[in-house]
Amino acid sequence: MLVVTDDAFGGHLRGSGHVESADRVVAVTAGLRSRRLLDDVLSARRAGDAELMRVHTAAYLALIEAETERLCHQAGDPRFAMLSTGDVVIGSASYEVARRAAGGAILAMEQAVEWAKATFALVRPPGHHAEQARGMGFCLINNALVAARAYLATYGGRVLIADFDYHHGNGIQAGVGNGVSYVSTHAWPAYPGTGSATQSALLPEGDVLVNVPLSSGGLSTEAFVAIWARLLPRVASYVRPNLILVSAGFDYVAGDPVGDLGIDVGAAGMLAAGIAEVAQRYCDGRTAYILEGGYSIPALIDSVAGVMAAIDGRMSPVSGAEWAAVPASMRRVLERLDAMLGAAGSS
């Protein structure tokens, strides 16, 4: 599986002790290499202004640049501060690293399209909380949404973003429509407080917004996999995407210091096998995974390795997860979504 990454990603918040640490990419890369899984690697590139401004305002980008530049001249080392838009810690390298992360997501998308296969953008900082003019939740630039808009600007068609991170991607939700659909499972109630089931909606021109909130108290691995085994094919049958982007956050894993839905680390491979089956049906396998959360380094290594094993054909798409394992409240949410999508499809 092609991986897009870069040593430069270690420069964001290095030395800060932040949970979204440099080791998230450095250690994962080393772990994958030790397992002989990094045979096909490309270095990320810097995203251009025009690419970023399809998602973010020029004023917001200028603000990040100015605030990180100010840290370069601040006395003391290391130099860190809170971005003025909210709860994002930045360092002097953060803006350039974030631009490179967005460029890495675009490159992974381009390779997935060109070669009709799945790729993985092993990038940081994450992006799915970043809104048009606001960074929040460890996120500065919305990598997945930037990649989606880059695809549509070049190829047209439809993009489906699937997000299984512990947290809801409020930034992606704010940017859906005009060719971008979004489907998310996430802990509820939990940060950032968006993504209730009532926020699901049919959008103009065949796009859709689908939110499936999960109990923040957790659920079984079997139920989590079964939800996605039913959810993604149903949404894809309505959207009929030309490309699937995956906001791949692994902080749902049991023991994660920021998330933790109690899910076994092996779920990542089962999810990826199901995603691959759907992608093959609708878009010739064109899928780009873009790293979001996941803050237990050993679990993150195992999760990414599990995705790669599934994509490389070493895991069956049949997980064995049973619909009966899904809690009744979750089944009702999914049944309402089935009705919404089915009614739209028959009209």
Structural description of this entry:
With 347 residues, the chain is α/β, with parallel strands linked by helices. The protein has a single domain (2-346), classed as 3-Layer(aba) Sandwich (Arginase, Chain A). 41% of the residues lie in helices and 15% in strands. The chain has ten helices and eleven strands. The protein has helices spanning 23-34, 49-52, 58-72, 94-115, 143-155, 170-174, 221-239, 267-283, 297-311, 328-346; strands at 2-5, 41-43, 80-82, 89-91, 118-121, 159-163, 180-188, 201-202, 208-215, 243-248, 287-291. The strands form two sheets. Strands 2-1-5-11-10-6-7-9-8 form a nine-stranded mixed beta sheet, with helices on both faces. Strands 3-4 form a two-stranded antiparallel sheet. The radius of gyration is 19 Å and the shape is globular. The mean pLDDT is 94.
What secondary-structure arrangement, pairings included, does this model have?
Elements: E1 2-5, H1 23-34, E2 41-43, H2 49-52, H3 58-72, E3 80-82, E4 89-91, H4 94-115, E5 118-121, H5 143-155, E6 159-163, H6 170-174, E7 180-188, E8 201-202, E9 208-215, H7 221-239, E10 243-248, H8 267-283, E11 287-291, H9 297-311, H10 328-346
Parallel strand pairs: 1-2, 1-5, 5-11, 6-7, 6-10, 7-9, 10-11
Antiparallel strand pairs: 3-4, 8-9
